[in-house]
Amino acid sequence: MSSRQPRSALAGNLVWAHEEARQFFGGLADLVVMDSPNRADFLVGLKSGGKYDQIVGIYRHNTSADRIGVFDEEIIDALAETGTVKWIAHNGAGYDQIDVSRCANKGDVHILHPSGLPSMRFDGLTSDLGISVSNTPGAVDDATATTALYLVISCLRNYAWAEQSLRQGTFKSGLDPGRAHDVTGRTLGILGLGGIGLRLAHLVHAFPMRVVYYSRNKSANAPEWCEYIDSLEGLCRESDVLSLHVPLRDETVHLVGEKEIRTMKKGSIIVNTARGKVIDEEAMIRALEDGHLSSVGLDVYPNEPFVNPRLLEFPQNVLLPHMGTENQDSQRHMEVRALTNLRDFLRDGQGNDLIPELRSKL
Question: Is 275 a catalytic residue?
């Protein structure tokens, strides 16, 4: 009987969790580093006899897109054609770089049971699931929420604008205290009370801010002081600051557009740490130009790393280069959680954190 272990690929950087990777996969699987310089080389490597032949799972980080591009239809089809790849453990809460609908539609592909490993339950992972995708919810909650908190405070108090003034040698000349507000007593509207939105709610409650939210469903985890608003329009109308925490899907592109922005109070603020395309950027800029929006706090943009230069014309805007999880603690947590999902798949035949779009396939 062969003692060959299943193979899993690391697609993208693993920076902090090398020791955990050794502990998780030692004696369980052979880890293959994806070293392809481009997409063509990666696709060739997936073929029979190639350097990625017989991989059954993939750890994926967005940095892999720098070399092989996003996991679009072409890559998902190539993974499905191997007949072995059944799990993509994505490192990150957002997974818009993976064509998850294509993964779900790959249900006609059956995994090849690794010979010599009768204790591993790969046989159950056949056509019902296609290619499963997990993400890392929870691992990013604190880092992203604290980023949103910074944007909220800085926009209300004009702190980023003040720092620019100091660095330019003008101290605080040009700043108007009539444009600034205390955080205490303002109303924060949270669009999407998932893990990140709920964490932000708890953070701002310390001031306190009044917290209202709108989600597709009323959250059972919401504390009593967190008020549910039953429509997006109502949320916009109530909010001094609107903070966005929804995933990017077809139905959330430009979820906040001209109508929603104009429903907000004159002089209100929008904060976005979700995805840039959730906002209609042109509508947002028009509202900044005519003063309907006081400022915006952004950590994400529609076409990163490009940033619309018109946003830079407003010194009161607080603009970050997608810093949400840029710290070693969160990144280690994310790496470990993604690796754990891959390990659980290899060991148990089913990982955790399956993305919502694929849970109905279970």
Answer: yes
Q: Residue 133: beta bridge partners? A: 88
**What is the band of 360 on the pLDDT scale with cuts at 50, 70, 90?**
low
Catalytic residue among 186, 275, 333, 337: 275
Distance CA 51, CA 45 (A): 5
Structure tokens at 325: 């999880």
Report the C-alpha gap between 49 and 284 in whole angstroms. Answer: 52
First-residue to last-residue Cα distance in the chain: 32
Q: How far is the C-alpha of 115 from the C-alpha of 222, rounded, in Å? A: 48
Amino acid at residue number 58? I
- Model confidence, pTM: 0.87
Active-site residue, selected from the candidate residues 163, 282, 289, 304: 304
Burial zone of 206 (CB within 10 Å; 0-12 exposed, 13-18 middle, 19+ buried): exposed
Residue written as token pair 């020791």: 19
Q: Is 304 a catalytic residue?
A: yes
Residue 160's H or E segment, with its range, is helix 159-167
Question: Residues with Cβ < 8 Å from 328, sequence gap 6 or more?
Answer: 16
Q: How far apart are CA 89 and CA 132, in angstroms?
A: 8
Supply φ then ψ for residue 157, to 5 degrees.
-100, 0
322, 332, 347, 357: the active-site residue? 322
- Positive or negative, the CA dihedral 252, 260, 285, 322 is negative
113 is catalytic: no
Pull the structure tokens for residue 315.
């010194």
Buried b (16+ CB within 10 A) or exposed e, 95-119: bebbbbebbbebeebebebbeebee
At 32-69, the pLDDT tens digits run 999 999 999 999 999 999 999 999 999 999 999 999 99
With beta carbons less than 8 A apart as the criterion, state whether 353 and 195 touch.
no
Helix, strand, coil share (%) of the chain residues, nearest 5: 35, 15, 45
